[in-house]
């Protein structure tokens, strides 16, 4: 017998799961690297987060079918480009399959030679620490080695399957809540 609760359902399909998870608003990154021919590769990725301050770790989840992921796994080095609200077109290009995604963007090389997409809010160069199974995705933990400059711009957001941008609402949580936030820098800038 199926367990029923007045507060939820255990009968849902992947479309309903996607709709429910789409209520969680995220930023958008493009994760870049180079393949064995030294060509730049990358894909749009919302499943990115800061994981640990000490040591500085990040996390992201590539689909097992991603064509970019094998190149990142082989290199062991990648750059996370955090997109600004001026870069919706960049997200669209890197969020779809394509041979020559980099022809539509300007990019520079990080210290390890990985692509840094110009005009991103910021970027971080990382090395792969661990890779574990996550259903139809991998769960990748990376160590942050190099931080790029931070642009004073607004982020590109993804919410309910669409793009969104926002002014920063200056609503400040209580101090004890802020202390637990990995992305609070102790100043008055809320990232
Ligand atoms: C806003 C947005 C967020 C995405 N987030 C992810 C993600 O977290 N993980 C993932 O594997 N693919 C994600 N994708 C889909 C990939 O970017 C897309 O499948 C892309 O074609 C993969 O390229 P590749 O096969 O060259 O690696 C996202 C796409 C968009 C547009």
From TrEMBL:
Domain Flavin reductase like per the UniProt entry, residue ranges: 21-165
Any Pfam family: Flavin_Reduct
Alphabetical UniProt keywords: Oxidoreductase
InterPro entries named among the record's database cross-references: Flavin_Rdtase-like_dom, HsaB, NADH-dep_flavin_reductase, Split_barrel_FMN-bd
Keyword presence, Oxidoreductase: yes
Keyword Acyltransferase assigned: no
Domain of life: Bacteria
Similarity-based family: Belongs to the non-flavoprotein flavin reductase family.
NCBIfam families in alphabetical order: monooxsub_HsaB
PANTHER family according to UniProt: FLAVIN REDUCTASE, FLAVIN-DEPENDENT MONOOXYGENASE, REDUCTASE SUBUNIT HSAB
Protein name per the record: Flavin reductase family protein
Species annotation: Gordonia liuliyuniae
